[in-house]
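tmp note - Exodeoxyribonuclease III
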Amino acid sequence: MKALKITTFNVNGIRSRLDNLLAWLAREQPDIVCLQELKASDAQFPREAIEAAGYGCLHFGQASWNGVAILARDSQPLEVRRGLPGMEDDSQSRYVEAAVHGVQVACLYLPNGNPQPGPKFAYKLRWFESLIAHADTLRGADHPVLLAGDFNVVPTDQDIYNPKSWLKDALLQPESRACYQRLLEQGWSDALRQLYPHERVYTFWDYFRNHWPRNAGLRIDHLLLNPALAPYLKDAGVDAWVRNEAHASDHAPVWISLGTRKRR
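out:
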C-alpha cells in the first residue's frame, strides 16, 4: 500500500470552525480525515469549501448535534455504509464507513453517556456493544481496516491528567473501559499506545477550569488498526497546536502515518 497520513478530529461544529479546519488541512495535508461532531445537516455541510481545498467528502450530518464525515485528499471516499449495524433505530448520526486510498475506514462518534447512571449511559453501552459486534466482522478482513473517531472513553488512568476529578463521568466508568478493552482483545491495535506505551498523550482539553493551559487533558480520540493494517504503522501523534488556535475545538487532531512496506 502507499504511504498515507490518516487523522481523526472532533471539530466541534464544522460551520463555526471551518476556517480552523481549512487552515489545518492546508498545513498538515492529511490524506484521509475522519471528522466528528459536525453539528450540521447534510444540506449545511460546507462541501464547496472543502472540495476547493482539495478534498472529496462523504458526510452523515445532523442539525445542531452529532454528525460524522470522511474526507479524502485528491479523491472521493466510496461509501460502504452509514449508520452502525445493530443500531438501525438510532436517530443520531454517529457512524459512516468508506473505502479510501485502499483502506476501509470507519469513522465513529461514540455517545458521551452523561449523566450516568441513566438512559444516556444505557444508550452509550448499547451503541458500544453494537460497535464491538460489527468490529469483530471487520477485524479479520484480509485488507486494511481502520476504526477512527471520538470513542468518548478514557482507556486507563494513564490517559487522563487526574482520574479523581472524573470518577463519576461516563468516560471513565468500568463498563466503558471494559468495552474498549474488548475491542482491543479482538485484535485491534491502539496506534498511539502501540508506539508510545508509557507516555501521557492527550487529545481533548475541556474549555473549563483552564484545562488547556495546564495541559490537563484526556485521551478519548483513538485510531484502531486491524491486523492487516497494523504492520504498516510508521508513526503517530497529536496536532496539539490546533487546540491553541483562536476559537479552537476542545479536541486536537490525532494522526497516524503508514509506510509503503510492512514493519518486520
